[in-house]
Amino acid sequence: MDRLEAKSTVLSILHGTTAEDAATRATSLRRLCEQYTAPLVAYLHVSRRIPLEDAEDLVNEFWTQKLLVPSAHENIVAKYFQSSAYGPTRGFRKFIFRSVANFQLDHVKKIQRRGKTLSLEQLEGWQPTSDGLVDPEFDRIWARHILGQVVDIARGECELKGQQDMWRLFVACISQPLNNTQRSMSELAVLHGFDNAKQASAALITVSRKFDRLLKSLVANYLPGQETTEENEALIAEVNDLREILSRPGVVNVESLGLLENPGEPAQMNRGETDGNLTCLNFSHNRISHSDLTSLWQALLEQRLLDWLPEFSGPIAVDWHSLRFGDLANWANPHLELLRMVHQYSKRQGTSSQETAFEFVRLPKEFFSVIYLTAIAVSYLQFCTHLSKASRSQLVEWVDAAALFPWLDSRTRELLVDFQDNL
Questions:
Q1: Residues 339, 371: contact at Cβ < 8 Å?
Q2: Closest to 8 in 3D by CA, of 18, 22, 142, 27
Q3: Mind listing the pLDDT tens digit for each residue in 295-319?
Q4: Quick check: 388 pLDDT over 80?
Q5: In sequence order, which residues have a C-beta less than 8 Å from that of residue 188 and are 6 or more positions away?
Q6: Coil, helix or strand for 420?
Q7: pLDDT tens digit sequence for 212-262
Q8: Which listed residue, of 116, 140, 198, 284, carries a Cα 20 to 30 Å from 37's Cα?
Q9: Which of 7, 273, 319, 269 is nearest to 140 (CA)?
Q10: How far apart are CA 96 and CA 72, in angstroms?
Q11: Residues 6+ apart with CB under 8 A from 292
């Protein structure tokens, strides 16, 4: 499938399959089948123990009987829109997987009624899933399917931009927990052609944010609904659900990560032989050296603010476009409105739990606590404005703690000390 096609909204495709216009309907039907055929076949093959060729035939028969032959108002998608399964927080994927499972069950029953003998392999695993439960196998298959799409698009973008070294570094970092290895950022920099740990850290941040953006985009594509608060909550829940599935032992392992390292290899849909645990790199003082934290902090200071902040609806000043996190501490002409945005963003990042975070590679919460204090300090020193409702004693305590971070740069430390002296 074309990379641009993969990014377009699946909700519009679903509506297209019920359209009266023949051309629109034909295009939407083709793209819907392209998106769901591979994981549906894998689900029947792995979970229902159906031979691969038979699984492919069964899915094609399902599309024919339930999607292609019925009218636009009677096909499986139209029934989805008419059912209680449709809603801002109810995705199409679970509906279609359950529909295929039931279709396969009906297929088995028809064969039995005809008096034909089925092998034990054909009968194994055909029992339906309880209505209130979800088959964990199709969750695993779907999560790997989405991961494979994200990997393909992210790797393709890196290749187009000549960022193969950045991609290899990212793969090495997320592979370490599965390979039971732990290399420092300095070692990884040498192995993957970077001049130093800071440069490698910046590359890791860049690719990981690309990965997060694509994962969020693909998930949004197959969730029904519009751009509402409820839809955003559904998006967060779905992304975190996928991340939780991918972090389960055995879902992603060293073998399946081969698709990350070898372009063109298909995603491994079968169960791995060894348990793996694909988690975000949630850096902490216990897991990373002070020197690597220093490099990572310096790399974050080089990041543009507007690349991290939520979309801003108001006018953007010219000098905001190039403003970096590191510029906050010595910002000559600060803007209070932007400081408020930085304050709110860093507060959310610093207080969010693992379960509510989008990031595939998470930076230390301590980083965002310092940025949070920096925004408060600048607004107080430059505008005599309190962005925080915290008491003076609380702010003094927080600054004392932040000043002890060994990775903190001297300019930010000086700003925080100046702020504390003026409280």
A1: no
A2: 27
A3: 999 999 999 888 888 665 556 666 7
A4: yes
A5: 169, 172, 173, 194, 197, 200
A6: helix
A7: 888 888 777 666 554 555 556 666 777 777 777 777 777 766 555 555 555
A8: 116
A9: 269
A10: 17
A11: 184, 185, 186, 197, 201
Residues 256, 298: Cα–Cα separation, whole Å = 33
Residue 278, token pair as written in the block: 């694909």
- Collapsing DSSP states into helix, strand and coil, what is residue 191? helix
Output phi, psi for 393, to 5 deg.
-65, -35
Burial of 415 (0-12, 13-18, 19+ CB in 10 A): buried
Per-residue tokens: 227: 């751009």
Q: Output b/e per residue, 24-44; b: 16+ Cβ within 10 A.
A: bbebbbebbbebbebbbbbbb
pLDDT: is 119 or 43 the higher one?
A: 43
The two three-digit tokens of residue 325, written as one number? 């996190």
User: What's residue 308's pLDDT?
Assistant: 87
Residue 171, CA distances (Å) to 164, 166, 179, 262 in order: 11, 9, 12, 11
